[in-house]
Amino acid sequence: MSDTTLARTAAAKPAFSLGRLLLEGRAFFALILIVAVFSFLSPNYFTVSNFLIMASHVAIYGILAVGMLLVILNGGIDLSVGSVLALSGVIAGALMQGVEMQALGVILYPPVWAVVVLTCALGALVGAVNGVLIAWFKVPAFVATLGVMYVARGVALLMTNGLTYNNLSGRPELGNTGFDWLGFNRLAGIPISVLVLAAIAVLAGLMLSRSAFGRWLYASGGNERAADLSGVPVKRVKITVYTLSGMLAAVAGLVLSSQLTSAGPTAGTTYELTAIAAVVIGGAALTGGRGTVRGTMLGAFVIGFLSDGLVIIGVSSYWQTVFTGAVIVLAVLMNSIQYGKGPRKG
Amino acid sequence: MTDVPQQKPDLAEVVLAARNVAKSYGNVHALKGVNFDIHRGQVTTLFGENGAGKSTLMKILSGVIQPTSGEIILDGKPVAFNNSTEARDRGISIIHQELSLAPNLSVRDNIFMGREIMGPTGVDFAEEERQARRLMAELEEDIDPLTPVEELRLGQQQIVEIARALSVDSRILIMDEPTSALSASEVEVLFKVIRDLTAKGVSIVYISHHLEEALQITDHAVVLRDGTMTAYAPRGGIDLEWIVRNMVGDNYDLGSPPEGHVFGEVALSVRDLTVADPKGGAFNVVDRLSLDLRAGEVVCIYGLMGAGRTELLETVAGRLRASSGEVVLEGREISHLSIAERIARGLALVPEDRQRDGLVQTMSVGENLSLASIASFTKGLFTQKKAERALIDASIREVTVKTSGPAAAIGSLSGGNQQKVVIGKMLATKPRVIMLDEPSRGIDIGAKAEVFKLLAEEAKRGLAVIYSTSEVGECLSIAHRIIVMHKGRISAEFDSNVSKEKIMAASGESVAA
């Protein structure tokens, strides 16, 4: 009995099919196609320096998209990441300008590492607020993060009175220089921002595929009730993914303000939608439980390489928006072909 | 020997017939070639256990779903309905078992939903209200047509559902468990309405778990078991015993309770457990219930739908909160523990609805099997692939899941094998007490027998088992002790030598309305 039950039947081995291969590797093929087409159209596209520049642009979306992937795997959505990105940049900017302690009559200039840690902690805190609202108070994820999106943006605007911090380089005599390291420096010729993205992607990939938490996340996103009854701490998982998403938004905020050497309260508007698009293009299901870091990274690069390519060949930015939209719709269409069982009667 | 399903000639004309109708969902065969006749102006009752295929057959006849094979014959001509609207246009309507009302809309709007009466200036609300009032009067129910449905109690909602089906003036009316929430007097009124309808030539198909109640009204009886028709007879030739025998079947045996081992200490003890209605109703769904379960013992909890069995088990497992009382596992009070902590202490629940509560459809067979015991193969930060694989392979062997391998999609398995995965998942946590809530629902007889064998073996090794079911035959073949639940309380307790009729009587099932 046991022999037969474990025996693999021929039917389980999927027959080789080009259509299936194209469908499952769609984000990868789309990226190849984009690179091929733009390399043909512009001699400047297929160069190492251009790829590195494009990759450093992708880094911002990519970092946000990893956080968004975690949330979407859980069956949720996080609309607040663009605003948290801006708020984090503004907070970092304010910390770089010095914190005046009126009671003591001194101005504190925290070193850059402390600025980074504090900013990430703030992002995590905002994310945790999202998580608690959603997991404990049963506010729908869409509404909770929409509210937090407005609040975070509003606080960023209030803090700066709508203005932008331009002086982020610090002063040597205060010992707080080095903020531009994240956005400008390179290690072995590769921009730091790209390395940060790579490190985050590898960590997230390991967490999803190898850790117990990853399994909990896939299970509670696939069927929360079943996961709950199997002993998965579904509320803790939920709060954790929103916290991580908030923290990653803060990291993206630091990278962006370092790249721009300025921190403005209107930075990152609609970035949450780009992040969602990257996750969806990467093949994740918005209903939760399906998706990978590899797919999401491909999705982020598809969006980044496409829009930068259109800039390089001189297409109007209005067309970029149209193209990006079309790619997203196409991706979702492919997702429903892959996961759906054909059109269902309503 | 079962009765050979033979359609005896009947004087009344057959208006709607199913010929060799079969329906499969993937590997699950809900109906396997059923013939079924509906006679003009008569009541045909369909009997069968849960999962026998009654609701599937009715959904096919009313166009809600399409058969995999076979044909539907209306007035002697083959027809194919693409949806329920097409069937309704041909005079067939259905009252579903699950209420299909929009709770936010009024009674009037629900009755005319989808076929609003149009006047020159849009919907003719006055006419709709007039007709709704007339229907309510006919059903002798004092409900204002403008009341939102969510403000009605369940029985009244069922009345609205019935009124909606009546409002269509159909020739054939299918009633799937129409009385499950009705009071005795409401059932009387419904029966009066049914008699009026049949006098006018309307044909009725009636499905009910209240066997004696159905016997009062029916002209013909058809019994389904595991997707096949097992018996057919006119009213004159049937009694309660005939129905039960054909429903449960006596040509197969699911075995008898495991013997030859001595029960151990009390493993699970429930003391005065009370659970308030999670939907906010006034009555407690579990009412000061106490029971003890010893190691190695199999206790069957029998009861009708809504008796409180699911709520009892979910409260013991930690999903629902008890309003009072205590749960003691191997001498330790566990009421304050989370589900995960209870699983770690050796208490496992196989939930009632495997699609909704048991399986993660996006995960593979292997990942589903290992889901409840992730901690056992996690070292430090990471899960150990080898240890997980060993656990999954052992589990597949133990519960004999027929699958192409651990990586197969969970949806590729038949219902019975999916159920084995849910059971295997919980057994992999090495429980001391396992509770199974209707584990045989929607699985075929072979898989059922395998599940029983597995439970018997585990019980001999000292596992304490609670088996909840609404099928009497199962209690007798698995349980050392049978507890009957009715309205949240234990209404009777038997040993395994009791008769089916006695158990059913204690559940309130065969008590006439």
From TrEMBL, chain A:
The lineage of its organism: Bacteria, Pseudomonadati, Pseudomonadota, Alphaproteobacteria, Rhodobacterales. It comes from Gemmobacter caeni. GO terms for molecular function: transmembrane transporter activity. It is a multi-pass membrane protein. The keyword Transmembrane helix applies. One of its GO terms (cellular component) is plasma membrane. Keywords: Cell inner membrane, Cell membrane, Membrane, Transmembrane, Transmembrane helix, Transport. It is found in: Cell membrane. This is Monosaccharide ABC transporter membrane protein (CUT2 family). The chain crosses the membrane at residues 27-46, 52-72, 79-99, 111-136, 148-168, 188-208, 239-257, 269-286, 298-316, 322-340. CDD domains: TM_PBP1_transp_AraH_like.
From TrEMBL, chain B:
Signal peptide: none annotated. Residues 16-251, 268-512 form the ABC transporter domain. Its main location: membrane. InterPro entries: AAA+_ATPase, ABC_carbohydrate_import_ATPase, ABC_transporter-like_ATP-bd, ABC_transporter-like_CS, P-loop_NTPase. One of its GO terms (molecular function) is ATP binding. It is found in: Cell membrane. GO terms for cellular component: plasma membrane. Keywords: ATP-binding, Cell membrane, Membrane, Nucleotide-binding, Repeat, Sugar transport, Translocase, Transport. It is a peripheral membrane protein. It holds the Pfam family ABC_tran. The keyword Cytoplasm does not apply. This is Monosaccharide ABC transporter ATP-binding protein (CUT2 family). It comes from Gemmobacter caeni.
